[in-house]
Write a structure and sequence with these properties.
115 residues; mainly alpha; globular
Length: 115
């Protein structure tokens, strides 16, 4: 899992300490440290905060894609799915599985068009 590395790099890109980011997200500094060391997966709510704050899509944070798109439109496009996931009590692992399924489906569609 490399989510921690992505989260660490995002925080550093803004020049923030773990404590400063924790204050912005209203969570403990130790939670930020656990996320960055891949000892704990962020909740869906926290993933949304990262996405909004750093203007990257959630699939980038989850390491599904290597592209850190800075468009807030891309980041916001996942929010309706995220809100439904929160209502359904979906775990971050289940959300990652869902995103992977969507990515695979889109790649399959692209490949079919190329043939």
């Amino acid at each position: 899992m490399i989510i921690g590395k992505v989260i660490h790099e995002l925080r550093k890109s803004k020049g923030l300490t773990q404590y400063q980011l924790a204050q912005k997200f209203h969570i403990s500094q130790s939670d930020i440290a656990r996320y960055e060391r891949d000892k704990k997966l962020p909740s869906i709510d926290i993933l949304m905060k990262y996405s909004d704050f750093f203007h990257v899509p959630i699939d980038y944070i989850l390491s599904v894609t290597d592209i850190a798109a800075t468009s807030t439109d891309i980041a916001k496009s996942y929010h309706h799915v995220i809100y439904q996931a929160i209502d359904a009590k979906i775990t971050p692992e289940e959300l990652l599985d869902f995103v992977m399924i969507i990515k695979k489906k889109k790649l399959d569609e692209i490949q079919k068009k190329d043939y």
